[in-house]
């Protein structure tokens, strides 16, 4: 719950208090005007009659303060109260009214200690509330949480992190370092996609690959670009989380000391740019280059789910970006194994109308699924692809779609969330399903069962979403020849119910 303290209550203060009275959170007004105090109390506003410039007055306030408003009509009172407020609550958001006809020196002193300044008593109430709204308060809350972490912080990306996750993690590390919090960037899985490897190597990004529960040595945990421990990472599901920042809000509620889940931006990197700017922390060349690449990848070069905020973030980063490094990251060489994996996906393809499903046997690199799903989407007549394979007892799949009204992220959730977890963008999504007891099955038998389950659930979800009943199966020789049409009824091979990540 947001806690607000108002020091002094002139014309601007009364406007703010009236506007805040019906909003969530509590408000305490400190004022030495007896008539104003009585009026506020008659309106059931919590008040305390005292000198708003006296430091001892703030010592008597027995509650944490998120937002502090200085709002007397007297400029000199506001100057002293703002300075007192900043000293007493260094992490609170301070909105200060200059007062009526302040001197230049007085106004400058107020501006030096306030986060936002109001210079006109005629400012509309809605505008005042906007100035102390959620957007302004988020950075302060994040800062306060980071400052409270006594020991090292682990910023954990999702498994096999992509550029958006990596960039977001390093931006959060920069903020945490400024807050005096020692920080490591951690991840599970591997970084196999050639562009992701190039990004890490060329920018010399130091990351710690985790195995098992190695986070016990950290006093704080932050999640970026995913929102639930144990879902698309290998943390225990009951891991307490301090900071959570993602642009893919999950269907179920999540818990953390600080939570920022917003789906109105195209990348988590965009959210981190916002924090850097509002906290006055300049993005260095490395972080800026990583963030810009993260935004470009997740918005598909500003063509997918992009918002005005994404463009503004990119424009802010451009002066700090190292163009030569960015060019090398975008054009890395591709390994022979990746090319061979994509070739197997092409040979194993199964087509129903405009939908293509393919299984990659002997999968070693999870990122090859996404690259194969992208490549198969270029086949004439194909509008939607799903490519899957098995690694270490888990089925991973990546999907792509274009030129349709299909929300692929929601479709994969419908298809696989009961037996695993899934999600992502409208045109790019993924899922992972633990095999459970089937992991001991014969390899050829296991492939058939997994294929039946994956295809049946995926096509069923497509039909439910009114994408039209698929046409008869077409097979294309090679390793995929002879594939049977998935059964029309539901198939339940005993997959273990569990949660593990989403993404493309």
UniProtKB/TrEMBL annotation:
Residues 353-451 form the DHHA1 domain. It comes from the Archaea. InterPro entries: DDH_dom (IPR001667), DHH_sf (IPR038763), DHHA1_dom (IPR003156), NAD(P)-bd_dom_sf (IPR036291), Oligoribo/pAp-PDE_c-di-AMP_PDE (IPR051319), RCK_N (IPR003148). Residues 5-100 form the RCK N-terminal domain. Pfam families: DHH, DHHA1, TrkA_N. One of its GO terms (molecular function) is nucleic acid binding. SUPFAM superfamilies: DHH phosphoesterases, NAD(P)-binding Rossmann-fold domains. One of its GO terms (biological process) is potassium ion transport. Residues 154-295 form the DDH domain. Residues 461-504 are annotated as: Disordered. This is Phosphoesterase RecJ domain-containing protein.
